[in-house]
Amino acid sequence: MIDRLITIFYWLNVKTWMSLIILVAARRSVTGTENIPSVGPLILVSNHLNNADPPILTHAMPRRIIWMAKRELFDIPLVGWLFYLFGHIPVRRFEADLKALRRAQQVLRHGHVLGMFPEGTRSKGQGMREGEPGTALIALRTGVPVLPVAIWGTEQVKLPRDLIRCTRVQVRVGKPFTLQRTDRLTKDQVAAGTREIMMKIAELLPAEYRVIYKDVAAAAMETS
Predict the structure, then answer these.
(1) Domain 2-223 falls in which CATH fold?
(2) What does the alpha-carbon distance between residue 128 and residue 132 come to, in Å, rounded to a whole number?
(3) How far is Cα 8 from Cα 157, in angstroms, rounded to an integer?
(4) What ranges do the domains of the chain cover?
(5) What local confidence, expressed as pLDDT, does residue 149 receive?
(6) What is this structure's pTM?
(7) How many angstroms separate the most distant Cα atoms in the chain?
């Protein structure tokens, strides 16, 4: 019952004031939405350029996304309140946050979409950073499909300026894939899974955004 109320509150906000702000501030081009499974648990992974990424991706996706977000955001007046009411998960970045891990797995057990930025923080328009292991760990432990998504152009989004000047933003959705594991999960498997996730995202991005994954992604695209 509570989850249903949260879902209703989520879509009421996404389809009203959030849509209005995004439609005014950003001219979006979204491709690949046919790759999004209509039901079932899913881990959405994306590169992270700017604070505008989560709301734009939220608006672009046809399914509710439960984001894992840094703990500090939940302490901001009004913003933090909305994050809690949207059902998002606070996480202590760059450390083993077991409580957040358990909540993420619970979200997936209930068949929802879990949203994660594997880089762990914004690149602030500098292109892809090295991925952190948390996303791969959850994907390997649950066996849930991973949906790679690339977003770019948001590094130019600045409010309130963009309320009078629309910025072009592009979103590209790839095909879901599943990380393979053996019976015993190892550190090497998590590292390999992290690299695979980052490569799948990099393949969807223009070359100038791939940075440290540029050569690897280019090679993977040539052999596919």
Answers:
(1) Glycerol-3-phosphate (1)-acyltransferase (3.40.1130)
(2) 12
(3) 28
(4) 2-223
(5) 98
(6) 0.91
(7) 55
